[in-house]
Known about the structure:
The protein is mainly α. Strands 3-2-1-4-5 form a five-stranded parallel β-sheet, with helices on both faces. The chain has helices at residues 19-27, 39-42, 49-67, 80-91, 104-116, 144-153, 196-207, 214-217, 230-234, 240-252, 257-282, 302-310, 316-328, 333-346, 351-361, 367-378, 393-400, 405-410, 430-436, 451-465, and strands at 4-9, 30-37, 74-77, 95-98, 119-121. It has 20 helices and five strands. It has three domains: 4-123, HUPs (Rossmann fold, 3-Layer(aba) Sandwich); 197-282, Serine Threonine Protein Phosphatase 5, Tetratricopeptide repeat; 302-465, DNA Cyclobutane Dipyrimidine Photolyase, subunit A, domain 3 (Orthogonal Bundle).
Amino acid sequence: MSQTAIWWLRRDLRLEDNQALQAALEAAETVIPVFILDPRLLHSSYASEVRSAFLFAGLQSLDESLQARGGRLILRQGDPLAELSRLRQEADAHAIYAEPDYSPFATRRDRQIEDALPVHWVGSSAIRPPGTVLRGDGAPYTIYTPFSKAWKALPEIQLPARRGQARPLNTPDNLASLPIPNAPALPAGVPFRAGEAAARERLEDFLSGMVYGYTSGRNQLDSQATSGLSPYLRFGMLAPQRAASEASRAIAQAPDSLARASAETWLNELIWRDFYIHILYHYPRVRRENFRLPHVRWRNNPEQFQAWCAGQTGYPVVDAAQRALAAEDWMHNRARMITASFLTKDLLIDWRWGERWFMQHLIDGDPAANNGGWQWTAGTGTDAAPYFRIFNPVSQGMKHDPRGEYVRRWIPELGAVPDEYIHEPWKMPSDLQHKIGVKIGQDYPAPLVDHAQARALALEAYKANG
């Protein structure tokens, strides 16, 4: 075995549980790891500076791991087809190995490359790749529940064997490589550290206890009870198959029925991720279009959109979520649903405005999950009876932040507001507003819209469409 292979990294920035790397190691004596910075992605209107910084930090961490094994990361920039062709000639490589990706952009790019170069697609950025979970007639599922049942009925996820994973990579010294960009450090508030080791640590911490309280804790805004793995799954610093395997193990080892149900809930969330990947792959139009209800009459008020972006809607839980996003470049999943519902249902602003805003700011911004989540909340997605789902921002705050801790953390001007008014500060008597120094309409905005009226308008708009 004296051949050379290229290992083209995209969304699999890890050495463990990497089937594309494993295949390259089995096929060639020399494996060249390469990552290509594509300007079309780096400078798109959906790009995020903090997400790019997290990517660059992940590449630096990966390069350190590669150097410990006698290799190094080759970094190139430009059109992937041109750069891979050039690198293949320089290294006299016989083949390219890469993990498939499934966004419309990725599938177009990869079809072009496989028509021109000897590329082998190995593994998957989904737990179960598109095409493996289908209805009896061969059509893709468009409803989550039957999809999840079919998903679970398939053979248990098997992690790749670790044959030869410790073998030196022997990256040639004469190959040119750009320096990994020294991106600005992640903002102080961002609660994530990039890299495969950080991903494994977070997974282990979650599995050590929180997984068994996931059902009750995952929706509470005032606690840290989610896995926090989404940025690592976004860039493949953690294999999604590893996450699913650990979820199954947690289910099997649960100490009681409640703990088992919590671990099953976590697995279901991982299956939701697969579901949205499959939907985007089979129906790429959803990236730009409603899956259902194509003619919703959005109001699209720019001033109201800016108030939503700035966390100045007058609804504390919505504003706290947006301010958390500004500070941490991450948002709790329950908060994502609340803020998305407010934008699309209370303000009747096109979900695509919010989808882009999230992609421009979220450290874990993922085309499939972000699109699927927005269309689910907007009522334009795959659900059967969507437009009745309109979140009340007051009752959502009361239920998921009952003591107002989340609101007070992110909206300090409401710090002195009593619990009974924390989610409805406009109801405070004027003498109380004066006493605590919080005048609604001055120190904190009055509600941008009346929720009851907005709900009625939304139902009317959606019914007219369908």
